[in-house]
Specification:
With about 100 residues, the protein is mainly alpha-helical. The protein has a domain of about 70 residues. The protein contains five helices and no strands. α1 packs antiparallel against α2.
């Protein structure tokens, strides 16, 4: 993800949160004097907090991804253990027959 895309995503999310706050606080309706300014201040605070939270959250999630593994093709089931770790029998699901005691 490019930095411009990251900033665009954060700005779009913040703009959405600011507009929702303005609408829910009745900024576009006829209200008593002073309520429109209060709604605008609260919407700007929500906009700023949302911008920072989305920006930091997505940036931290992007740090968890190794860019070399994004292009790597996986051609095996991802939930099964690797064959190199557990041997060929564990990945194929073959069960060994039970050992019976000889008397």
């Amino acid at each position: 993800m490019k930095p411009v895309q990251l900033l665009g995503l954060a700005f779009g999310s913040a703009l959405f949160a600011g507009i929702v706050t303005l609408v829910s606080m009745g900024f576009f309706q006829q209200r008593q004097p002073g309520q429109a300014e209060r709604a605008l201040v609260v919407a700007l605070i929500v906009l700023g907090v949302t911008f920072i939270v989305v920006l930091v959250g997505v940036a931290l999630l992007l740090l968890a991804i190794d860019p070399a593994q994004v292009q790597k093709q996986i051609d095996r089931p991802v939930l099964l253990p690797d064959e190199s770790e557990s041997g060929p029998d564990a990945a194929s699901g073959d069960a060994k027959p039970p050992v019976t005691p000889s008397s």
